[in-house]
Structures are given as structure tokens and as C-alpha cells.
UniProtKB/TrEMBL annotation:
InterPro entries: ARM-like (IPR011989), ARM-type_fold (IPR016024), Armadillo (IPR000225), Insc_C (IPR045789), INSC_LBD (IPR031938), INSC_LBD_sf (IPR038205), Inscuteable (IPR039921). GO terms for cellular component: apical cortex. Residues 66-518 form the Protein inscuteable homologue C-terminal domain. It comes from the Eukaryota. CDD domains: INSC_LBD (cd21966). It comes from Dryobates pubescens (Downy woodpecker). GO terms for molecular function: cytoskeletal anchor activity. This is Protein inscuteable.
Length: 518
């Protein structure tokens, strides 16, 4: 599994030109062309090339880009081989050969003390690439179908071996680089060197889960928590915690966090008022990551429960005092996740007047300024609404009005992530209304604010809910709860179609409903 989030330059293919140049690899030609591949088929609209403009500090990023290109080219070779496009297979094989040699040369110019095993794999890969190129060259020199057919399995086998050696070499290289950075973090007392190493480590974590696993296995979480326990590195806490949040998206990171009492360290940071808001916010981000409901590994949560009250209290305080929307988002996301796995968290929030704090924050457009923030707030409200005491808090904080406004949540940008967040806001606000409307006072407030017509609109109009089935189910449930409390609020046709039938029948009716634009 190679990094996929690479920033590559796409250029238009050039037409086939100078037939004798396409396969040449001598130094002068390669220097002039800057290793740019030349497309000879119209079906290759874009070719992936490396930018020649890079800073020496970005050596590892360059290596990852080169690795991504090689991986992509190997996949393309397999596709062309399947279609028996021998000329294309050979030209691409030559290009891969050049990229592999360039990658190895570039890496050896900046790496320190590469292992003997790495050198062995470098030699194996170069030799196998040369063999691969020789095989494909023989294929373009013959037109005998039987010979080509017999060679195809041999080429496939060689391609598999090249991919295998390449993958193992990249694994060794990335492990070596992770070890080097972690040694710098563990052994250096220099603020500058430590900061550079942590920054490089964070960049690596952004290249995907595979790199996070490598770093975690090499002790990355342990090394970073050591930094978080040294007062002399306080100014580095925010970026250290940001890197930890990335590493804790993989199970190996969680195992390491548990071993070093990471949750206790996070609780200490969050409750220490001498730390900056940025440090508290990044600690909240780590909490949000390790409590994510999407994680399948939860062995760390036992130690989390021991520190939960302290953590929840600190997060509520951070929400209340947040100076920006980003800080509020991180703190509220952590709280939202915590409310999923233990009802005690909801009771603690109730005691801390969290409902009032969150509702007040929603009225400040500088703090709760995106659908993502409103998603976190309404998640907390929905999970807290299972408690009977929440109804009075909602009424006092004008929460029903807020829930009504959230039923109108729409994306302003059309961005898919934002659209999905808006759907979640609509769904959870309807769920919260359904739960809270068991209290007559809340139901009465919802009816007076015209929640019933809005819920009907969401049920009957697919575009209002962005064709979301989850929003539809939540709105039908809320509508039915309000209809029990206020049956006069519905027209007979709405009652007959949306309330009286079984929920599944009303759902099917609404999903098959065509909108009227009259």
C-alpha cells in the first residue's frame, strides 16, 4: 500500500515524434527531457511527471512522489500487457527503469547509513528491471503470436517480482527514515532540530495509514509523548499533539498510547491552565481521534473512563472560552464522540451546564460558523436528549428554536463533505426533536415554531433533504411524535400518508414521491 495523496503535475501528452528518441535513455537525452515520458498513444491523455522544482528539504516528499509514479506505471503496464500492446508495454517498462534508477540515486544522495538489506533490495530491483526491459524489447522485435503468447506469462511473473521488490524496498526506506526522525526526537536537546524532526514526521503521517503504522511500530507515539512531558519543549506541544492525533488513527498507534499512559498525559495537559489555547485545542483533537465512533479498536477506552470527568470538564471549559471557530470545533467534536460511548458523559455534561454553553455558542456566528460545528453541537444535544432533565434546559436556552433552524441547514458551497455535514445536522436535529417532544412543553414550543410544516416539507420534498433517506426516517419519527402531542397541526392527507401507516410504508411512499413544481 503506497501513499496516494501525492501532488503531481499533469501535462498534456505530446504526439509521437522522433521515432528513434522514444526508447533512448542515454544521459544527454534524459537530461534534456528531465526524465519526462513521451506518450505515443492517444489513449494516454495525461502522463505523470515530477516537477523539477523542489527544495532539498523535501527529499523525502520527492521520494514518495517518485514511488507513487512507479507504482502507477506498474499498474498501467499490467493493463497494457493484458491488451497485448507490446510497443506500449516496452516504452513504459523503459520509463519505469529510469524512474527506479533515479529514485535510488536520489535517495542515496541524501540518506544516512542505509542498511545492507536496503542495498541488497536496490540491486535486486535494478537487476530485475533490466531483465524486465530486455524481455519486453524482445517482444517488440517479433510478430509471432505464439512466441508472444509464451513470453506473456514470463513477463507477468517478472512484473510481479519487480512490484514485490519495489514494495519491499519502499517499506525499508520509509522505516529507515522514520527511525532516523525518531532518533532525532529522542536524542536531541535542540529546539530547532526537534521541531524540524516533528514537522517532518507530521508530513509523513499525512501520506496515509500505512506510513502511520510504520511510525507507530517504530515507537513514534512513545517518542512524542516524551516530548509532551518535557516542560522545555512546551512551545512544541501543539505540533507534537497534532502529529499524535494523526498516528492515533491506526490501531498500532492506539496500542502505543495505552502503553505510555497517553490518556493521563492528555488529561494533565487539558486541565493545566498554564498551557496555551492552541495546546488545549490540539489535545482536544487527539481526544476526538481516539474516541471516534468509527474506530473498531476500543481497548484504550477503559483507561479513558478513569479520566473522563476531568477531560469532559476541561473540554466544556474550552468550548466556553474558545476564541475561534476552529478551537470550538475541536473541543465540541471531542465531546460529541465521548457522548456516544458512555451515558455518564451526558450526565456530567448536564451537571456542567454544557447545554446552556453550547446553545449560547450557536448564537455567535464567529464561533459556530460552519455546518461541521453545528453537526458536533446537535450530536451532543441528540445524545443528551435521552435524559429527562434535558427538556427544561432546552426550553430555557431557546434550544427548540435552534433545532428548528437546523432543519433548514443547507450547503452554501455544494462541497460533498459540507453537503454530508448538512444532512447530518438535519437528521440529528429531527432525532433530537423526536426524543425531546415526549415532554409536552417541548412539543408545544415546536408546534408554535411551525416545526410540523417544515418536517412535512422535508418528508415530501427530496431536494430539501438532499435525497437523504436517514433525514427522511428521522423527520417521519419526529412528525409522528409531534402529531401525537398536537394532532390538529396536520392536514388529513398528511396524517393519512405520513403518520397513520407503518413507518416503513410512509418511508416507501416518500422515497417514490415525485416533486410537483406547479
Amino acid at each position: 500500500s503506497l501513499p496516494s495523496s501525492m501532488h503531481l503535475i499533469q501535462v498534456d501528452s505530446v504526439q509521437r515524434w522522433m521515432e528513434d528518441l522514444k526508447l533512448m535513455t542515454d544521459c544527454e537525452c534524459m537530461c534534456i527531457l528531465q526524465s519526462k515520458p513521451i506518450s505515443i498513444e492517444k489513449d494516454e491523455q495525461n502522463e505523470l511527471i515530477l516537477s523539477s522544482q523542489y527544495n532539498t528539504c523535501d527529499n523525502l516528499q520527492l521520494l514518495l512522489k517518485r514511488a507513487w509514479i512507479i507504482s502507477t506505471e506498474l499498474t498501467r503496464i499490467a493493463q497494457k500487457l493484458e491488451k497485448n500492446r507490446w510497443q506500449r508495454v516496452h516504452s513504459m517498462t523503459v520509463r519505469v527503469n529510469c524512474h527506479v534508477r533515479s529514485m535510488i540515486n536520489e535517495y542515496n544522495t541524501f540518506t544516512r547509513n542505509p542498511s545492507e538489506e536496503m542495498h541488497q533490495y536496490e540491486k535486486l530491483l535494478i537487476d530485475k528491471c533490466s531483465e524486465f526491459t530486455a524481455f519486453t524489447e524482445r517482444c517488440i522485435q517479433t510478430e509471432d503470436e505464439q512466441i508472444l503468447k509464451s513470453m506473456k506469462s514470463c513477463i507477468n511473473e517478472t512484473l510481479t517480482t519487480v512490484a514485490q521488490y519495489f514494495g519491499q524496498l519502499i517499506e525499508l526506506v520509509l522505516t529507515h527514515e522514520a527511525q532516523t526522525l525518531l532518533r532525532q526526537i529522542e536524542l536531541s536537546d535542540s529546539m530547532y532540530i526537534t521541531e524540524l524532526a516533528i514537522s517532518s514526521l507530521f508530513s509523513l503521517t499525512q501520506e496515509g495509514a500505512h506510513l502511520c503504522r510504520i511510525i507507530a511500530k517504530e515507537g513514534g507515539v512513545v517518542a512524542l509523548f516524551k516530548i509532551c512531558r518535557k516542560d522545555c519543549f512546551r512551545c512544541l506541544y501543539p505540533q507534537t499533539l497534532r502529529t499524535l492525533a494523526s498516528l492515533c488513527c491506526v490501531e498500532e498507534g492506539m496500542h502505543q498510547l495505552e502503553k505510555v499512559d497517553g490518556i493521563l498525559c492528555l488529561a494533565d495537559i487539558l486541565t493545566d491552565n498554564s498551557h496555551s489555547e492552541a495546546t488545549h485545542a490540539e489535545a482536544a483533537a487527539v481526544i476526538a481521534q481516539i474516541t471516534s465512533p468509527h474506530l473498531t479498536f476500543t481497548q484504550h477506552l477503559s483507561s479513558f473512563l478513569e479520566n473522563m470527568e476531568e477531560i469532559v470538564t476541561a473540554l466544556v471549559k474550552l468550548c466556553k472560552e474558545a476564541s475561534s471557530g476552529e478551537v470550538f470545533l475541536l473541543a465540541s467534536a471531542a465531546l460529541a464522540n465521548i457522548t456516544f460511548f458512555d451515558t455518564m458523559a451526558c450526565e456530567i455534561l448536564l451537571q456542567l451546564n454544557a447545554m446552556k454553553i453550547l446553545l449560547a455558542a450557536c448564537s455567535d456566528k464567529h464561533i459556530v460558523d460552519t455546518p461541521y460545528s453545528r453537526d458536533q453541537v446537535v450530536t451532543i444535544l441528540a445524545n443528551m436528549s435521552v435524559l429527562d432533565q434535558c427538556a427544561s434546559e432546552i426550553i430555557e436556552g431557546n434550544g427548540v428554536q435552534l433545532l428548528m433552524e437546523m432543519l433548514f441547514e443547507r450547503s452554501s458551497s455544494g462541497n460533498s463533505a459540507e453537503v454530508a455535514a448538512c444532512e447530518r445536522v438535519q437528521q440529528k436535529s429531527a432525532v433530537t426533536l423526536a426524543r425531546l417532544s415526549r415532554d409536552p412543553e417541548v412539543a408545544d414550543a415546536a408546534v408554535k415554531l411551525s416545526c410540523i410544516p417544515r418536517l412535512i416539507k422535508l418528508c415530501r420534498s427530496p431536494t430539501e433533504r438532499n435525497n437523504s433517506d436517514s433525514v427522511l426516517v428521522a423527520c417521519l419519527a419526529a412528525l409522528r411524535r409531534l402529531a401525537v402531542m398536537s394532532p390538529d397541526g396536520l392536514e388529513d392527507s398528511d396524517f393519512q400518508q405520513l403518520v397513520k401507516p407503518r413507518l416503513v410504508d410512509s418511508f416507501l411512499l416518500c422515497t417514490n414521491m415525485e416533486e410537483s413544481f406547479v
